[in-house]
Write a structure and sequence with these properties.
3-stranded mixed beta sheet, about 30% helix, globular, binds iron/sulfur cluster
């Protein structure tokens, strides 16, 4: 791992994140050691290393906390998505505590904060998360099968640890968006739907894989495509699961499920903060996969 200073810690939101109503993204790290085979971040132009090395390198922003302390007033009350192209709770975070330091810097300025992660380490910072008036954790739980998880997300935390994190967040009163994005092959879609419904997340989002013919944007990557074939998982399977899940609770699809907690400032009229209806989003296609 490399540790080096960065120029910025809050970047103006773009693409689906902006469309969802966020003002800023915050990425304490560059790269991601969870190594998900479907990750769009590996295609980012700033990640110049070979795709085959995705998940094997990481840059920590040495001055992330100092930058956050300096620029937190600028993002006061606005919507922040942390993180869009890495996971803020990678194993390195356990000792570096960059995400924790950023949260501490933000608390006095009360942005509307979404933390996007698949890591149980997020529970370490519940004490800080509870100090935000508007906060939500988007927790990625992408399948019901540990073997499938290991194939697609070889270095990411086990599913049961994520469910345990979800329960801890729930006990702490933190709003949870359950991100089944992308929806990986499932062993028992009916049972998985019942499990999700029984947990009752505030928001649940599903999303199928997409092709972009090798261009940056919505490419799922060759390894993920191979795995989908291996597990014989098609768009039909995905839609079947989505329909089953909809029998139990309201389901958002793709980018429609990604919106910040709390009300939008009245001065911002570019995007409605009201969550779109499931019906309005079911056939909507997005231009960027929504995983982290
Ligand atoms: S999808 Fe998220 S957790 Fe997985 S490698 Fe990409 S940034 Fe990391």
């Amino acid at each position: 791992m490399e540790i080096r200073p960065a120029r910025s810690i809050f970047s103006a939101a773009t693409g689906f994140i902006r469309r969802g109503g966020y003002d800023w993204t915050c990425n304490p790290y560059i790269g991601c050691t969870y190594a998900c085979s479907y990750c769009y971040a590996m295609f980012l132009p700033q990640n110049r290393r070979p795709l085959s090395e995705w998940g094997r390198w990481l840059v920590a922003k040495a001055n992330a906390v100092a930058l956050a302390q300096r620029f937190a007033p600028k993002v006061a009350g606005q919507a922040i998505y942390m993180a869009s192209v890495t996971d803020p709770y990678l194993p390195a975070e356990r000792t570096l505590r960059l995400s924790r330091g950023i949260l501490e810097a933000l608390i006095p300025y009360q942005p509307r904060l979404t933390v996007q992660t698949r890591s149980p380490l997020v529970v370490r910072d519940i004490d800080l998360l509870r100090q935000f008036r508007y906060v939500g954790v988007n927790l990625s739980i992408t399948t019901d099968c540990e073997e499938i998880r290991r194939c697609f997300e070889p270095k990411a935390p086990p599913l049961e640890e994520r469910w345990a994190a979800a329960r801890s967040l729930r006990q702490a009163g933190i709003s949870i968006t359950l991100c089944i994005t992308p929806t990986l092959p499932l062993r028992d879609p009916e049972a998985f739907a019942r499990l999700i419904a029984a947990f009752g997340p505030e928001v649940v989002v599903v999303q199928d894989f997409e092709e972009s013919h090798g261009c940056f944007g919505a490419d799922t990557g060759p390894r993920a495509r191979q795995l989908l074939k291996h597990f014989d998982w098609t768009a039909d399977h995905y839609y079947r699961f989505r329909d089953i899940l909809q029998r139990y609770l309201k389901v958002y699809e793709g980018e429609a499920g990604f919106f910040p907690p709390g009300p939008r400032p009245s001065s911002d009229t570019t995007t409605s903060h009201s969550p779109p209806t499931a019906q309005s989003t079911q056939s909507r296609r997005h231009t960027l996969p929504l995983f982290s």
